[in-house]
Amino acid sequence: xxxxxxxxxxxxxxxxxxxxxxxxxxxxxxxxxxxxxxxxxxxxxxxxxxxxxxxxxxxxxxxxxxxxxxxxxxxxxxxxxxxxxxxxxxxxxxxxxxxxxxxxxxxxxxxxxxxxxxxxxxxxxxxxxxxxxxxxxxxxxxxxxxxxxxxxxxxxxxxxxxxxxxxxxxxxxxxxxxxxxxxxxxxxxxxxxxxxxxxxxxxxxxxxxxxxxxxxxxxxxxxxxxxxxxxxxxxxxxxxxxxxxxxxxxxxxxxxxxxxxxxxxxxxxxxxxxxxxxxxxxxxxxxxxxxxxxxxxxxxxxxxxxxxxxxxxxxxxxxxxxxxxxxxxxxxxxxxxxxxxxxxxxxxxxxxxxxxxxxxxxxxxxxxxxxxxxxxxxxxxxxxxxxxxxxxxxxxxxxxxxxxxxxxxxxxxxxxxxxxxxxxxxxxxxxxxxxxxxxxxxxxxxxxxxxxxxxxxxxxxxxxxxxxxxxxxxxxxxxxxxxxxxxxxxxxxxxxxxxxxxxxxxxxxxxxxxxxxxxxxxxxxx
Length: 526
Known about the structure:
- The protein is of the alpha+beta class.
- The chain has 13 helices and 30 strands.
- The strands form 7 sheets. It has a 9-stranded antiparallel sheet with strand order 25-24-23-22-30-29-28-27-26, with no helix packed on it. Strands 2-1-13-12-11-10-9 form a 7-stranded antiparallel sheet, sandwiched between helices.
- Helix 2 (61-74) runs parallel beside helix 8.
- It is globular.
C-alpha cells in the first residue's frame, strides 16, 4: 500500500464524509505520478478539497524566501556576509550584528518569534502580523548564543530576511514574491497575505479533533518570510516542476545531492537535509494550528512528495518521509521495530530534558507505544534487539533508576541530542516552595511573571494576565508549565532573585524578582 492509499484509508475518504482532509501528490522529475484530493475545505460549507484549494503552508514559506535572497545575491544587491544592521536600522546592537547567512541557516542565536508572542498572550486563533513580530524583536535585543556557533531553528530569522528583501528591492515582500516567483511560474493561487484579514480568500479552514469532534483552530498569521504562505497543490506542483525545468543556480543547489548533503548544519536554502540509514532526502515540513504541510525531494531518484492538510494529518511529514524511504532504500535496510509493553507505565512516563534544560519533553505510554507530547505527537516503538525506543530519525535509550518512597519520578536526559541514556531523578512533590512565590519582571518584554502558591505547594504560573498553570515540578528550582519551563536562580543567601523562562527555541528569557507596593498591578504590554 503506497502513501496515498494509506492517507485515503486514514481519512475515510467517501463522498458522504464531512471531515478535514488534504491534497497530495507524488512526482518524478517534476511530472505527476499519482495524486489525491480528499476531505472538506470547511466543515460548515462542505466544499470538497481540490487541486486549487488554498492551504496555509506554514514553514514551506522559507524556501521561497531563500529563493529571493539568492536572487538578490545574483543581482549583487547583497552578500551572505551582509549584516542585518547594514540594511535595516532600528534594531538593537546584538540582533543588528547577525549576518544574512546566519539568518538563512538558523545559526543567528535570535529568539524565536512564536516564543515571544506566546509570552505576551497571543495564542491559537489570534491575528499576528509582521509588524507585531518586528516590534517585539526590536524590544528584545538578546541572543541565545554567539551567532554562528550553534544551530537552533528560528522563525524570526526568516521574518527579518523579508525586511532585508524589502529594503534592497524597495518593494513590499508580498509584491516581490509575486513578481519574481509566483507570476513567472503561473502560481495563480499562491500569495503572502498583506494583513491577517487577507488570508481567508477561498481557502481551507484548519481543524483539530477534541473528544471525537472536529473543532476549528485556524491560524491567522500574516508574517512575511517565515510562514503565512497561502498555496494550492496545483501551484506547489508547478514549484516542484521548476526545480527540474528552470535553469537556476538556486534549484541546481537544491537538487545537487552531494553538494547539499555536504552541509554540516543539516539545513540549506530553506530545506532540511536528512542523511541517515533510512532517509537521504531534502525538504521541509510545516505546522501551524491545525495546518500541516510537507515537501520533500529524493534527488537520487528524482522523486518528490507534496502534502497539504487542514487538520486530519498531524503525522503528514512522517508519512511523506516513509514514502521516500521506501522508494530510495532497499526494504531490508529499514529497521523493523516491535511493540513492547513495559512492566508498568511509570517505567517510561514523565518529563525528559537535556543537560541545560533547553529542551524539555513529556512522554506518556499508550497502546504499546511511547508517545511524545507537547509538539508533534510522535509514537516511539520499542526495538527488541537494541532495547531502544525509536522513531524514523532517532532513538532514545531508557534506563530506570532506583526509586524510593512516594515521590513522583521525573526523567532527565544527560544529552538528548546524543541519544544517550535517560535516567530517573526523584521528584520533590510536597516540599516547601513558598519562598519562590512572588512577582518577577522582564524589562525587555514589559511583562510580569507571577508564581502563586497554595499552602506549601506552588500551584499556578501567570504571565501578565494569562495563567499558564498548573505547574509540574522537575527539581527543587526547575518546573514546567504549559509547553515552557522555568528555572529559579538564587542569590548567595539562598533567596530567589531571578526566574529564567525557556522553550526549545528560546534558551533564556530573564525575569528579576520585584517588590510591588500595595495597589500596584502586574504589567502586560500587548
